[in-house]
Amino acid sequence: MIWLFERGAEALRLETRFDSVHGDYVLVIFWADERVETERFRESAEFDRRLRTLEQQLATEHWMQVGPPTILSDGWKVG
After folding, report:
1. pTM of the model
2. Number of domains in the chain
3. Which burial class, exposed, middle or buried, applies to 71 when counting CB atoms under 10 A from its CB (0-12, 13-18, 19+)?
4. Of 15, 23, 27, 53, whose CB neighbour count within 10 A is largest?
5. Do the beta carbons of residue 54 and residue 65 sit within 8 Å?
6. Residue 78: which residues within 8 A CB-CB, separation 6 or more?
7. How is the beta sheet containing 24-30 ordered, strand by strand?
8. Cα separation of 21 and 60, whole Å?
């Protein structure tokens, strides 16, 4: 799943995936300054905590989500 955020003229993208080969949940953050961070999680609960923490961090830093509407623990969009 892909989520897009904006803050003024800046944009960032979050991607969530499931690596079926290794059994990992994967979070990739494409920051506005062109850094790319990849984080891997073995447990869905740990993945969920990281997504919630990141969502709060972005809100605190005044990033506005422009699509899709909600980040879920399993990394997929709300219906």
Report:
1. 0.82
2. 1
3. buried
4. 27
5. no
6. 68, 69, 70, 72
7. 36-41, 24-30, 10-19, 2-7, 64-67
8. 35
Which residues does residue 2 pair with via DSSP β-bridges, in sequence order?
15
User: 3 vs 7, which has greater pLDDT?
Assistant: 7
Instruction: Look up residue 64 and give its two tokens.
Output: 């506005």
What mean pLDDT is predicted for residues 25-43? 96
Q: Which domain holds residue 23?
A: 2-67
Residue 78 within any structural domain of the chain: no
Question: Taking residues 47-60, what's their average pLDDT?
Answer: 95
- For residue 62, being part of any structural domain is answered with yes
The number of residues making up the chain comes to: 79
CB 77 within 8 A of CB 14: no
